[in-house]
Amino acid sequence: MKGQPSTPDAPVLTATDLRRTVRLPGGGTLAVLQGVDLEVRAGESVAIVGRSGSGKTTLLAQLGLLSPVSGGRLEILGIDVSSISDRRRARMRNRSIGYVFQSYSLVRHLSALKNVELALLYGARTGRRERRRRSRAALAAVGLTDRARSRPKHLSGGEQQRVAIARALVREPALILADEPTGALDVDTAASVLDVLLKATRERGCALVVVTHDEAVAAQMSRRVVMHEGTIRTTPALDGVDA
Ligand SMILES: Nc1ncnc2c1ncn2[C@@H]1O[C@H](COP(=O)(O)OP(=O)(O)OP(=O)(O)O)[C@@H](O)[C@H]1O
């Protein structure tokens, strides 16, 4: 499988003393991530919980190579991505990471199928027919074969999120990152979307990291970590204090 670690339990991501500092409009700086240590292995699902403003989204964006690393070390599939070129970083992101957003982020004027195909357009060197075949398979995996031709506005929130999950999975990434993937959905729809995400990651043997405020979502993951003021709390006794 493409972009996958060679052994089932191999670390997919290893963050060591990861830091992110941003410039504030007034001229000062803010240390948003203040030394995060986190390891996630193939087949694991990890929930990141914590108070609003503790740095969860910033950490996920960092793990997804959407923003540069200010300090510390980040390895994805054993490659130190803290200091690689922008080009390699983009290639790594496309090849090995699938990202799911709370707001789905689908292209409005494209069908569900075309939205999924988009993920295979950049750097995948996949022919048109193969793109279509894989995209149909990804939509089938999330139970949306019948809605392949529908545009996002004709799909429910849960269906749109399943299209977004298909788009994240179609390149068979080693790592799936999801930021509040069920935050905009009602309880039942959220449960079915989460099922789809967990089943797909289980079957493909990839690693899953989910940022969530929802303890019911966190409870379904194999592990739960708590963010507090830009770091991860590892003391079990403190778990739950800030979640
Ligand atoms: N580019 C930026 N410029 C200024 N401040 C930022 C920037 N990025 C993040 N922050 C600040 O860093 C802190 C952490 O933000 P982040 O969005 O990661 O928190 P969060 O835990 O995901 O919050 P929530 O649960 O509310 O989504 C916040 O105080 C936020 O305002």
UniProtKB/TrEMBL annotation:
Q: Could you tell me which residue ranges the ABC transporter domain spans?
A: 13-241
Q: Has the keyword Transport been applied to this entry?
A: yes
GO CC annotation terms, alphabetical: plasma membrane
* Domain of life, source organism: Bacteria
Q: Which Pfam families match?
A: ABC_tran (PF00005)
Q: Which InterPro entries match?
A: AAA+_ATPase (IPR003593), ABC_transporter-like_ATP-bd (IPR003439), ABC_transporter-like_CS (IPR017871), ABC_transpr_LolD-like (IPR015854), MacB-like_ATP-bd (IPR017911), P-loop_NTPase (IPR027417)
According to the UniProt entry, its GO molecular function terms are: ATP binding; ATP hydrolysis activity; transmembrane transporter activity
Give UniProt keywords alphabetically: ATP-binding, Nucleotide-binding, Transport
Listed name of the protein: Putative ABC transport system ATP-binding protein
Which species is listed as the source? Sanguibacter antarcticus
